[in-house]
UniProtKB/TrEMBL annotation:
Residues annotated as domain FAD-binding PCMH-type: 215-388
UniProt-listed Gene3D superfamilies: 3.10.20.30, 3.30.465.10, [2Fe-2S]-binding domain, CO dehydrogenase flavoprotein, C-terminal domain, Uridine Diphospho-n-acetylenolpyruvylglucosamine Reductase, domain 2
Top-rank taxon, per record: Bacteria
Cited PROSITE patterns: 2FE2S_FER_1, 2FE2S_FER_2, FAD_PCMH
InterPro entries in the cross-refs: 2Fe-2S-bd, 2Fe-2S-bd_dom_sf, 2Fe-2S_ferredoxin-like_sf, 2Fe-2S_ferredoxin-type, 2Fe2S_fd_BS, Ald_Oxase/xanthine_DH-like, Beta-grasp_dom_sf, CO_DH_flav_C
Protein name: FAD binding domain-containing protein
Coiled-coil features, chain-numbered ranges: none
Taxonomic placement: Bacteria, Bacillati, Actinomycetota, Actinomycetes, Micrococcales
Pfam families assigned: CO_deh_flav_C, FAD_binding_5, Fer2, Fer2_2
SMART domains noted in UniProt: CO_deh_flav_C
Region (Disordered) location: 134-157
Domain named 2Fe-2S ferredoxin-type: residues: 2-87
Keywords for the protein's UniProt record, in alphabetical order: FAD, Flavoprotein, Iron, Metal-binding, Oxidoreductase
Length: 504
């Protein structure tokens, strides 16, 4: 079976002979929809952005922007995709077509010059245009009268227009011509979608259900299992299997390293991997929920995650990437691991007929190696409650956003009424072969008074953590210095009055 069916720009069509590793971008361009372009092939420029219909609860749809250069077209079997060509109305016998409001504002306000990036910008902007939570406000600095913008209001330089447009929704789109101001002007000029808007009306109906998909070729297979048990059956038959949810990691390997796994299993729509439950003693997050879905679902319940989200790649990536995928790759520079370590997270590993829970601090055994067996998957993450009252995440990178970190530090401590540190968890990334807990620093803090002297002493220990190396992102000396400074910065931020006295 190699045929897939997609609804593209409102028209359902069947397609035969789709290769399991054909990207959605190439697939769309083969259909003559050449608005989406390839710029970087790594999900960093947004020139390939399109809209997909994703669930927004059980009975509504949310238009979501994603990079088309990363996921395989097979992953969209039975789904709905809208490209830049499908936003406006097509020319017909009664006259020329009409531009979509986003397209019109981009043209009117000079938001497009060479035009290469414009279709991607338009699709990302359209997703924000249709975001149900977007509401007008008189405040242009992010204090939106209680309006929650997917956690982004925690970013120090968050920008939100008077029309409620979250400018960070465009953070994964790059333009080399306009200087961005006209693009921002276009975004802030957008009103509310009209009642007759077809894409707005489509949001009032359920999103497409996942389709069972199986594509076999002589060298590779793509399968979307219908059940979790079927997934486990396939794991047993193919040891070189690759699990894929958002494809934000595998897609780069396919594009840049020309990796061609013999079997790809799509897990992003399995119900058992899409849980989000909050109880009195823990939060359980399904491994296949996108980071944007987690952000909306938690709605600010975990402040440390709210600090992470705006710094994790871009909105285009977060709309597809998952915690399960970010941890499963085993990368020592993945941004989520330090934060999850500081939160005391456990990983729920599932195999056929059984589950086990492993503390994340004990999950990694070496570079891109873990305790997970070949017959197991990451089903969920569990964060214990209550949360520490003092917490912060620091990402040191060459760019403020949408960059790989040189060093990542997450700190969570609890202090009692006598100003004594009663617990401490510190997660580090980019300074060892795996993400690590800074155990020696934690020991230097627990039981000590929360003073500058304690912070300075612990910071000296922090500088000695891990085995940092020299590479293209930073030197080992710089990484050690950043470890030390991050703890001093944390103390200064948590004790602003004392920090000011010391500086005077």
């Amino acid at each position: 079976m190699s045929e897939i069916r997609l609804t593209i720009n409102g028209h359902e069509r069947g397609f035969a002979s789709v290769n399991p590793h054909t990207r959605l971008l190439d697939f769309l361009r083969e259909q003559g929809l050449t608005g989406a372009k390839e710029g970087c092939a790594e999900g960093e420029c947004g020139a390939c952005a399109v809209l997909v219909a994703r669930p927004d609860g059980d009975d509504r749809t949310r238009w979501t922007s994603v990079n088309a250069c990363l996921p395989p077209a097979a992953a969209f079997d039975g789904q709905e995709v809208v490209t830049a060509e499908g936003l406006g109305t097509a020319p017909g016998p009664r006259g020329p077509g009409q531009l979509h409001p986003v397209q019109r504002e981009m043209a009117t306000r000079g938001g497009s010059q060479c035009g290469y990036c414009t279709p991607g910008f338009v699709c990302a902007m359209a997703a924000e245009y249709y975001r149900p939570e977007r509401t007008p406000s008189d405040d242009t600095h992010g204090e939106k009268s209680g309006t929650h913008v997917q956690g982004e209001e925690h970013a120090a330089d968050h920008e939100c227009g008077p029309n409620g447009f979250d400018l960070h929704s465009l953070s994964g789109n790059l333009c080399r011509c306009t200087g961005y101001r006209p693009i921002r002007d276009a975004a802030y000029a957008l009103g509310e979608p009209e009642e007759t808007d077809l894409l707005r009306r489509r949001q009032e109906k359920p999103a497409p259900k996942p389709s069972y998909t199986r594509i076999d070729t002589a060298t590779t297979r793509f399968i979307r299992p219908a059940t979790l048990d079927e997934l486990f059956d396939h794991l047993e038959e193919a040891p070189e299997v690759r699990l894929v949810a958002g494809a934000t990691d595998l897609g780069v390997e396919v594009n840049i390293r020309h990796v061609r796994p013999p079997l790809v299993l799509a897990v992003d729509r399995l119900d058992e991997l899409r849980t989000l439950n909050v109880s009195d003693d823990q939060i359980e997050i399904g491994a296949a929920l996108s980071l944007s879905e987690v952000e909306r679902g938690l709605a600010g319940r975990v402040p440390l995650l709210d600090q992470l989200f705006p710094q994790f790649a871009s909105r285009l990536i977060r709309n597809a990437a998952t915690f399960g995928g970010n941890l499963g790759t085993g990368s020592p520079i993945g941004d989520s691991a330090p934060v999850l370590l500081a939160l005391g997270t456990s990983v729920v590993l599932a195999s056929k007929g059984e589950e086990r829970e492993v503390p994340l601090a004990e999950y990694y055994t070496g570079y891109r190696e873990s305790v997970r067996r070949p017959d197991e998957i990451i089903r969920a993450l569990r964060i214990p409650l209550p949360l520490a009252q003092h917490a912060a995440f620091y990402k040191i990178a060459k760019r403020r956003f949408d960059d790989i970190s040189s060093v990542a530090v997450a700190i969570a401590i609890e202090v009692d009424d006598a100003a004594t540190i009663t617990s401490a968890r510190i997660g580090l990334g980019g300074v060892a072969a795996t993400p690590i807990r800074a155990r020696e620093v934690e020991e230097a803090l627990i039981g000590q008074p929360w003073t500058r002297e304690t912070a300075v002493n612990a910071a000296a220990v922090m500088a000695q953590q891990g085995t940092p190396i020299d590479d293209m992102r930073a030197s080992s000396r710089y990484r050690s210095a950043m470890l030390e400074q991050s703890l001093l910065k944390f103390w200064a931020q948590e004790q602003p009055d004392q920090a000011q006295e010391v500086s005077q």
